[in-house]
Design goal:
about 450 residues, Metallo-beta-lactamase, Chain A, Rossmann fold, 19 strands, about 25% strand, binds zinc ion
Length: about 450
C-alpha cells in the first residue's frame, strides 16, 4: 500500500491523507487551513474552490489528479466535525465520484455548513453511528470502522480501514479521556481487538507530541469552569463566556452551571448556532431547551438591550474566544453591539488561544479593549482536546502498529512523534516515517 500525505503534514490544519491499495484510493479528511481565513468575513470570502485555493485554505488535493489517482477514489472518510478536517469537503469533494462518510453529528455539521453558505455537493453523504461500519466499494471491498474516540467535539472517530495487507488506523484527532462529560469513553475494547487483527499503519495526531504530559480529562475543564463560576463574587455582575462552538460537552457544562446560578442562558453568534443546530438534529444537544439562540443583528440588539437592564439575571455565551474580527465578543468590545460592559463584569475564556501570530495579535487587542471597561478576565479556563506525549505512547502501545506515521503538525511536532516512536523501538524510515505535504511512502 501507499500512503500519500496531502495536507496537515507541513502545518497545523488542512488535513488530508490518501491511502492507495491496488486499484483503490480512500481519502481521509478534507480540512481547511484556518489561519488563512481568520478575519476574512463571510461576505468577503469568495465561497468558490478557486477563491479558497488562492487563500491557501484548502489541502493541495490537485496532487490526487496529478498522480492519476482521481478515478480510483472510492470514499472520502471524515474523522470529526472540526473545520480543519471537514471544512474542505464542500469545495473539493465534487472531484471524486465517491461517498462522503462520517458519524451522524459530523455529517450533520457538514450539511449545516453547506446550508449556511448555500453550497451543494453531488456526493452521497453517508452517516454512521459512532462505532458503526461502512463498506467502501472499489476493485475490492474495504470494511471501514468509525471507532469511538474522545476529543473536543462529539462523535469523533478513529477510522479503521481493513485492507488485505492489514488495518490502516487514522487517528486524527484524539485524546484519551476516561471521564468525558458527554458521550462515551474511547472504545479501548475495539482498539485492542484491531491490534490483535493487525494494524499495518497508524496515522496519528502529533499536535501536542512535544509536550511531556497526559492531557487532562474534560472533567477537569468542567471543574475549572465551576471553580470560576461558583467561587468568585459574581452575584451582581454580568457574565460573558466564550468557547469553541463545536465543543458540545463544554456547552453542556456551561448551561448546567448557568441554571444553577439561576441565570437565563443566551447563545449569541452564527457559528454557535450552526453547531448547536447540528447537535440538536442528531439528538445530541440535551441542553437545547434551556438556551435561546440569537444570530441576526436585530435579534442581537433586542436581547442585549434587555440584558443591559438586569445583567445579573443572564449568562451570555458567545463567539470570539480567539478575538476573531466580526465575532460577537469582538463587536461587543468595539461597542458595535449594545451590551454595556461595566467594572467587575466577568469575561470567561473557556478556551486557549491557538498559537498563530494572527490569533495572538487579535486576542491581545481584544483584551486591551475589554480591559478599558475594567472587567475581570478569566483566561484559559480550558483543557485541550489533543493527547500529549504520554497519550501518544499509550495509543501506540494499545494499537501496536507495524508502522507509525506522525501527522497533524509542522516539522517540530512530527519530529516529536518520531522521537517517541524511536524510543519505543521503531526505526526512522523503516517503521516510523517523517512525512511532509506531497510525500508518499510505500509500506
Ligand atoms: Zn479536531
Amino acid at each position: 500500500m501507499k500512503i500519500h500525505a496531502i495536507g496537515g503534514y507541513s502545518e497545523v490544519g488542512k488535513n488530508m491523507t490518501a491511502l492507495e491499495v491496488g486499484e483503490d484510493v480512500i481519502l481521509f479528511d478534507s480540512g481547511l487551513f484556518l489561519p488563512a481565513i481568520v478575519g476574512v468575513t463571510e461576505r468577503e470570502r469568495e465561497p468558490t474552490e478557486k477563491g479558497m485555493r488562492d487563500l491557501g485554505a484548502l489541502p493541495d488535493d490537485l496532487y490526487v489528479e496529478k498522480h492519476g489517482l482521481r478515478n480510483k477514489v472510492r470514499a472520502l472518510l471524515v474523522s470529526h466535525a472540526h473545520l480543519d478536517h471537514v471544512g474542505g469537503v464542500p469545495y473539493n469533494s465534487y472531484r471524486y465520484n465517491a461517498d462522503v462518510v462520517g458519524t451522524s453529528f459530523t455529517m450533520e455539521v457538514l450539511k449545516v455548513l453547506m446550508e449556511d453558505s448555500k453550497q451543494k455537493i453531488k456526493n452521497r453523504i453517508v452517516s454512521v453511528h459512532p462505532n458503526g461500519v461502512y463498506t467502501a466499494r472499489g476493485k475490492k471491498n474495504y470494511k471501514v470502522e468509525f471507532v469511538n474516540m474522545t476529543h473536543s467535539t462529539i462523535q469523533s472517530a478513529l477510522i479503521a480501514v481493513h485492507t488485505p495487507e492489514g488495518i490502516v488506523l487514522y487517528a486524527n484527532d484524539y485524546k484519551l479521556d476516561n471521564s468525558p462529560v458527554f458521550g462515551d469513553k474511547p472504545n479501548y475494547k475495539r482498539l485492542k481487538e484491531l491490534a490483535a487483527i493487525g494494524v499495518k499503519a497508524l496515522i496519528v495526531d502529533c499536535l501536542y507530541a512535544p509536550d511531556d504530559r497526559k492531557t487532562p480529562s474534560e472533567k477537569i475543564a468542567r471543574g475549572l469552569l465551576e471553580d470560576v463560576l461558583f467561587t468568585t463574587d459574581n452575584h451582581n455582575s454580568g457574565i460573558v463566556i466564550t468557547t469553541f462552538s463545536s465543543h458540545i460537552a463544554r456547552l453542556k457544562s456551561i448551561v448546567e452551571f448557568g441554571r444553577r446560578l439561576n441565570r437565563e442562558i443566551i447563545f449569541l453568534g452564527r457559528s454557535l448556532n450552526k453547531y448547536v443546530t447540528a447537535a440538536k438534529r442528531v439528538g445530541q444537544a440535551p441542553f437545547i431547551n434551556n438556551v435561546r439562540l440569537f444570530t441576526y443583528r436585530k435579534q442581537l440588539e433586542k436581547v442585549l438591550n434587555k440584558v443591559n437592564k438586569e445583567k445579573k439575571k443572564y449568562l451570555v455565551v458567545c463567539t470570539g474566544h480567539q478575538g476573531e474580527p466580526g465575532s460577537i465578543l469582538d463587536r461587543i468590545s468595539r461597542n458595535q453591539l449594545p451590551l454595556r460592559l461595566d467594572k467587575n463584569d466577568h469575561i470567561i475564556f473557556s478556551s486557549k488561544t491557538i498559537p498563530t501570530p494572527i490569533n495572538e495579535e487579535n486576542k491581545d487587542q481584544l483584551e486591551k479593549r475589554l480591559k478599558k471597561h475594567q472587567v475581570r478576565i478569566f483566561d484559559n479556563v480550558h483543557v485541550s482536546g489533543h493527547g500529549g506525549r504520554e497519550d501518544l505512547r499509550d495509543l501506540i502501545k494499545l494499537t501496536r502498529p507495524e508502522h507509525v506515521i506522525p501527522s497533524h503538525g509542522d516539522l517540530k511536532k512530527l519530529m516529536a512523534g518520531l522521537h517517541l516512536a524511536e524510543e519505543m523501538g521503531y526505526v526512522a524510515n523503516k517503521t516510523v516515517h517523517l512525512m511532509h505535504n506531497g510525500k508518499v511512502i510505500t509500506i
